[in-house]
Amino acid sequence: MQFLSYDDVNSAITPAKAVEALRQVLRSGYDPADDQARTKVPLHHGEMHLLPSTLPHVAGVKIILLHPEGFETDLPLVQGQYLLADGETLTPHTLLDGAALTTLRTPAVSLAGIRDFIVDGSDPINVVILGAGAQGRGHAETVTSVLEGIREVSIAFVSRNEPDDLGYTWLRSGSAEAADALKTADLVLCATTAASPILQLEDVSAHAVIVAVGSHTTDARELSADLVGAAHVIVEEPRAALAEAGDITLAIEDGTLSESDLVSMKDVVSGAVQLERDRPIVFKTVGMPWEDLVVGEAVWKAHDSRGE
User: Fold this and answer.
1) Lowest CB count within 10 Å: 53, 126, 150, 187, which one?
2) At how many degrees (to 10) do helices 289-305 and 15-27 cross?
3) Which domains does the chain have, with CATH numbers?
4) pLDDT exceeds 70 at position 116
């Protein structure tokens, strides 16, 4: 059994390679509707999440442990690991750092779903990222990696407080500069902890592509109902979205969206569905077990091929 540390995972493959691994699995015929269910197990001092998944040649499970809200500790509130096993013998062979895998996988899924909409054109692409935490920065790195050699990328972060050592343009939430940047953005990435909408239809242009990754419960959302209702809406898999995505379920409750409006990531990536650029495109993600499995396997293979 080998262990891949945080640094091992981060150095094994580029974000663009993680994006391509996800897209290749979908193009090969895999249907996320066949993925295994996430299981939540109550513990004496928190909660454990189990995210198992399987493909013919590989199986794996992410184990996440969460402290309860308000728990005082110097440790991270969320900890976890990923276990990879051979798909035929079922022999476990690699344990990967769970935080590193999640940081790599989440923005890779975002870009895998919308890559086709941002690679066309030779003009620089304007990107605005709402939220300057680890996931926001991970999305900046992934956008840059995917578009390297294809388009010039201009990135601005919008948040309430200016973070240290950001290395990108920073704009304060609610400022006129932030509003202007959003209105002219080609790509808007929402990676915040907001529970109520921070982005409205009037904030973005008609050609904008918007990805929302921050909320994972049906009572929280980053996008307003009018924005979701006016857009083409892509989800990883409709049942998963209806179970976990407040951006989707609350828009349905508000009457601006219906279940039949949802387009699966698989259909977009495979080309089965072609979306017109006549209105904004929204991609709402919640994270699914198959995504960790695919990216985790790609990391392991790359690390193993180097003989480290």
Assistant:
1) 150
2) 120
3) 2-102+289-306 (3.30.1780.10), 121-284 (3.40.50.720)
4) yes
Distance separating alpha carbons of residues 183 and 126, to the nearest angstrom: 10
Nearest-angstrom CA–CA distance, 107 and 141: 9
d(CA 266, CA 32): 8
The CA distance from 92 to 60, in Å, is 8
Task: Output the CA–CA distances (angstroms, integers) from residue 190 to 116, 135, 245, in the order listed.
Answer: 19, 9, 14
Task: Compute the chain's Rg from CA coordinates.
Answer: 19
**pLDDT tens string 61-102:** 999 999 887 777 788 888 999 999 999 999 999 999 999 999
